Amino acid sequence: MAGKRKYDDGCAVAHALDLVGERWALLVVRELLLGPKRFTDLQTGLPGVSTDILTQRLRELAAAGVVRRRRLARPAASWVYELTRWGAELGPIVVSLARWGGRSPGLRPDAPIGVDSVLLSLEALFDARAAEGFAATLGLRVGEDDFTVTVADGRIAVSRGEPDDPDATLATDLDTLLALLRTDRPLDELLDGGTAKGDRGLIERWRALFPLPDPVPVEDRT
């Protein structure tokens, strides 16, 4: 990582920022938390980053042992980037950062957001108390992307790919999913029929598990 500015500080926090604190670096990690991606997939998830900067960040993260490049088996045989086991340990940190940032009064709900960001936000927003006694596996298709969302024992797990035996499935676009999570509009009205299978009451209960946080009080910001 020659040429990078470093803090030259013995604090582990400073060293962590040396590794993942450059602009776009932690967002690259965010894009890989739900599974490997091709370079072009990363560009789709990070539309504001240039090709050169993304290449540089991937090279730096690989040198730091956070990301690795791997060739998929045939018939795909394409190159993908994925987190190492150590890199994957950043998952709870990214979710906690999202939880913290979600309380900022400066967060713009109308700003663009990617599919992976929305799926990871489910972990940040998840209300374990609201999920008491609730257990279900939901298959969620957003555009062309498939995800499995499992809630059990007051915990949530989100992964890329279709579930084997879901209790319900929901296929929608990103804007509709955001409306499902951020508004009280009826499910049938939002989906316009035909895109939800299984117990719709279960889906309604599921969407209530992700309440938006209240902004941090002014007195806590002074």
Helix content: 25-40%
Number of strands: 7
Number of domains: 2
What's the SSE pattern? Answer: HHHHEEHHHEEEEHHEH
SS content category: alpha+beta
CATH class wording of the largest domain: Alpha Beta
What's the arrangement of strands in the largest beta sheet? 5-4-3-6-7
CATH architecture of the largest domain: 2-Layer Sandwich
- Kindly report how far apart the N and C termini lie: 38 Å
Number of helices: 10
CATH fold assignment of the largest domain? Nonspecific Lipid-transfer Protein, Chain A
Biggest beta sheet attributes: 5 strands, mixed
Task: Compile the SSE list and pairings.
Blueprint: H1 12-20, H2 25-32, H3 39-45, H4 51-63, E1 67-71, E2 79-83, H5 85-88, H6 91-101, H7 115-125, E3 136-142, E4 145-152, E5 155-160, E6 168-172, H8 174-182, H9 187-191, E7 196-198, H10 200-207
Describe the structure in your own words.
With 222 residues, the chain is α+β, with helices and mostly antiparallel strands. It has two domains: 12-96, Orthogonal Bundle (Arc Repressor Mutant, subunit A), CATH 1.10.10.10; 110-207, Nonspecific Lipid-transfer Protein, Chain A (2-Layer Sandwich). 38% of the residues lie in helices and 18% in strands. It has ten helices and seven strands. The protein has helices spanning 12-20, 25-32, 39-45, 51-63, 85-88, 91-101, 115-125, 174-182, 187-191, 200-207, and strands at 67-71, 79-83, 136-142, 145-152, 155-160, 168-172, 196-198. The strands form two sheets. A five-stranded mixed β-sheet has the order 5-4-3-6-7. A two-stranded antiparallel ribbon has the order 1-2. β3 (136-142) and β4 form a beta hairpin. α6 packs across α7 (115-125). The mean pLDDT is 92.
